[in-house]
Here is the input.
Amino acid sequence: MKIRFLPLFIFCFGSYFAQSPKTYAEQVIKKLTSPEFSGRGYVDNGMKRASEEIAQQFEKTGLLKLTDSYFQPFTYPVHVIKNCELKVNGKELKIGSDYLVGAGSPSLQGTFQPLIFNPSVIDSLFEWDDRSYFDKELERINNNAVVFPDVQFPENMIIRESTANQFYRDIPQIISSGGLDVSIPLVVEQTSSKFIHTLSSRQTQTVDIFISSRSVPEAIKSVTIDLQSDFEADFEAQNVVGYLKGKRSDSIIVLTAHYDHLGKINDVIFPGANDNASGIAFLLSMSRIYAKSKPNFDIVFIAFAGEEAGLKGSQYFVDHPLIDLKKIKFLVNFDMVGTGEDGIQVVNGREFPKQFNKLENISHMYNYLKQVKVRGAACNSDHCPFYQKGVPSFYIYTLGGESGYHDIYDTEVSLYAFDKLVALLTKFINEL
Here is the structure.
């Protein structure tokens, strides 16, 4: 049975400790994906409000503070898309479903018409890190848009930093200048590929618009855009950190998950139910268990900010640790654990075979999960900065089921294996 997260939800942790992990997780995810937190991103103080909610749950559970606060503040650069209104051929489009904006796109207003392809010019002229490509070829464009017809790209290619650079590296075509002047070229791509939104740590030299070829199947004749965005060199964020005393303090277990997501543009929210409200629900569920049953070792619980912007929170913690990293006996990071119909994947499992075998054997012994799959090292979530410092660590995510990813459709998860995964990790931690 899937859980549909309604737009409005009055949240209460009533009968707090009487709830099962899954029931509690349902409430946490509904809360964090509600409009109150604006996608836990960069508008309406969404990320800050989410961090305060998590700190309240830490306090209610009885977690102790490592400093005088649960918060570890830090800053990092991020480019924020705040609002975008778009019409193509006179038709108003909705962001997230009909189109998406390149993460680093600067503000731009106006009506534009497409230029003409010049297929004789190939992209070997431009290097991947050469950010002057439009200075070379498009510096004289004004009130015109560069339009790519429907081209199939890998799903994970859409909306990355230096988007236009990536196009030019992979498409053997460059647009001719047309003999006009412009300070900010507009690049438009019609695509049938899945929209995958993300963040940029810089402002690009182009405005990149991705238009669904299902929403606009015809040729593009005009584009009217009103885009408002800002580059914030020192966006203020904060990790949320608490701990529980164990029977021994000579070693530390660390459990982590990131709470930030992509925020919202206009009134459209990127809710991030699986990524990573589910991970925070898991982290909080584990804290409740160990608040009732004293662990063998001290356990530190960290909810990171800035993961979607490039592991900013976890990297800051490693660079400014609130604990002795050498005392960490093991770290487990939870990111996208909202399904589980096909079991779990364990990143770093091959790097720490003894611990992986223990985890797999426990699952098999108690028939917890369909499978416990092993992967090698990958710097794809908040375990990575710790692993690079020599901290033994796993990153666990669930397999199977349905959920969105970096889009407006990540609104529901099955929590199919949630209770069993909680039981598995509890036994695993107790045997470390």
